[in-house]
Amino acid sequence: MITVRGLAKRYRRRRVLEDVSFTVPRGMLTGIQGENGAGKSTLLKCLVGLLKPDAGQIVLDGRVGYCPQDPSLIESLTLTEQFRLFGAGYGLTPDQVADRAGTLMEEFGCARYATTRVDRLSGGTRQKVNLIAALLHEPDVLILDEPYQGFDYDTYQHFWDYTERFRVDGGSVVVVSHMHTEIARFDAMLDLAAGRVTASGRRAKDVVLTDAVLTDRGE
Ligand SMILES: Nc1ncnc2c1ncn2[C@@H]1O[C@H](COP(=O)(O)OP(=O)(O)OP(=O)(O)O)[C@@H](O)[C@H]1O
């Protein structure tokens, strides 16, 4: 579960997030949309602790997998080495990393690049590595910033299948998406504009933060 209340963030005098509040219950797939520069990536970076908000509270339950908009990969490492490094950061054993990375590379169609250096990969394959790195430790909460840029059609479909399974298994997912054709996939959509979010979609009421949610959580 993700709970955000009264989040505010500015860069010097540029106020990007004014007062953002929402919740994403377990088993829910929520999109975030908004025009370029609306603050979507800023919001996600605050969620995962890469940016310190100026005000507000964030509660994330469980392990978090974060896929940044721009892959933060080490160019000179092979995929296997890259995942070993991420795995160590997550506290996984080398055997756990090998097992999990092997499965995910097969699933996302990049196993043949296991011993290829990152700087020799195509843009779409780099993006697969970026996504796999976020999934390696079997997170409970997924925070994905335009994760499918450059994916071929099969991988794109596979991404949505994976996300759907993750959601059905009780995970919480937030995806920044500009793909209006995909809007029906989301349980709810958060529109970010002028530093605030409004919710739409079939489960819009479930992402609106109410005092009841906060009371349930004992806050
Ligand atoms: N480190 C930074 N320092 C100063 N301003 C920044 C910084 N990062 C982002 N900004 C500004 O904050 C605003 C929000 O940026 P952000 O990247 O969060 O938007 P976005 O909604 O993700 O955009 P896009 O759809 O283009 O990815 C923009 O005006 C951007 O120029």
TrEMBL record:
<dbReference type="InterPro" id="IPR003439">
    <property type="entry name" value="ABC_transporter-like_ATP-bd"/>
</dbReference>
<dbReference type="GO" id="GO:0016887">
    <property type="term" value="F:ATP hydrolysis activity"/>
</dbReference>
<dbReference type="InterPro" id="IPR027417">
    <property type="entry name" value="P-loop_NTPase"/>
</dbReference>
<dbReference type="InterPro" id="IPR003593">
    <property type="entry name" value="AAA+_ATPase"/>
</dbReference>
<protein>
    <submittedName>
        <fullName>ABC transporter ATP-binding protein</fullName>
    </submittedName>
</protein>
<keyword id="KW-0067">ATP-binding</keyword>
<dbReference type="Pfam" id="PF00005">
    <property type="entry name" value="ABC_tran"/>
</dbReference>
<keyword id="KW-0547">Nucleotide-binding</keyword>
<feature type="domain" description="ABC transporter">
    <location>
        <begin position="2"/>
        <end position="219"/>
    </location>
</feature>
<dbReference type="GO" id="GO:0005524">
    <property type="term" value="F:ATP binding"/>
</dbReference>
